[in-house]
Amino acid sequence: MAGICSVCGLPEELCMCEEIAREQQQIILQSDKRRYGKMVTIVTGIDSSDIDVDDLARTLKTRCAAGGTIKDGNIELQGDHMKKVKKVLEEIGFKVEQKGDLK
Q1: Spatial CA neighbour of 64 closest among 54, 74, 76, 77
Q2: What is the tens place of the pLDDT at every residue in 54-90?
Q3: Between residues 19 and 44, which one has the greater pLDDT?
Q4: Quick one: which H or E segment has residue 48?
Q5: What is the reported pLDDT for 101?
Q6: Which of 15, 90, 93, 98 has a beta carbon 3.0–4.6 Å from 29's, enabling a disulfide?
Q7: How many whole angstroms separate alpha carbon 41 and alpha carbon 82?
């Protein structure tokens, strides 16, 4: 028998909690230049209580073919992947705002 979601009370296969959480969050994309001129794409504004940040980071790293990490609830990807990350996050259902220009 399927489990029941503790938040909305629906069966787990019908649960919409994560989709609603995605729509309500405002994700901010920015790029930063680090030591030795290396670029890093930073994804901020993720509420880790509603979204599985580890799974999201794994998806972004796979789709961008880049390394990365999670620091202080932010996802940091090695390289300048603003366009790819924005496209992937919008496909998943997040609202995305970028700081700086998309190259």
Answers
A1: 77
A2: 999 999 999 999 999 999 989 999 999 999 999 999 9
A3: 44
A4: none
A5: 59
A6: 98
A7: 7
Domain boundaries, the chain: 26-98
Report the C-alpha gap between 98 and 101 in whole angstroms.
Answer: 7
Closest alpha carbon to 102 in 59, 57, 12, 41: 41
Contact (CB, 8 A) for 44 and 74 = yes
Right CATH for 26-98 from 2.30.30.40, 3.30.780.10, 3.30.1130.10, 3.40.630.30: 3.30.780.10
Residue 54 to residue 57: CA distance in whole angstroms: 5
What is the CB neighbour count within 10 angstroms for residue 85?
25
Amino acid letter, 91: E
